[in-house]
Amino acid sequence: MLTIVIPGLEYFNEETEEFTYYDDVKVQLEHSLVSVSKWESKWCKPFLNGKDKTMEEIIDYVKCMAVDDFFHSFVFSVEKRFT
Fold it and tell me: Which whole-number Å values give the CA distances from 60 to 16, 21, 73, in the listed order?
């Protein structure tokens, strides 16, 4: 299992001219057959096929490895703000 800490984030919304602050987030990731299976179920192709992955596929695999459900909601909220 891998534990990483994502540093806090300061986000400025130009429309409202307000800052939003996010605290540090501690994430536990586990590379396992379950994670690979989740990813392959979604993408309908083998994960370990030696071919390059798109950024979207890589991010999705990190989500599949996340042990903590909080990480999923955090990543979704950050992705939504910056896309």
Answer: 30, 24, 13
Query: Whole-prediction pTM value?
Result: 0.65
Residue (of 45, 24, 25, 23) closest to 36 by Cα position: 45
CB 66 within 8 A of CB 29: yes
The torsion of the CA quartet 15, 5, 75, 49, rounded to 10 degrees, works out to 140
Full DSSP string of 41-59: HHHSS-SSSSS---HHHHH
For CA atoms 20, 28, 69, 41, the dihedral sign is positive
Which residues of the chain, if any, have pLDDT below 50?
none
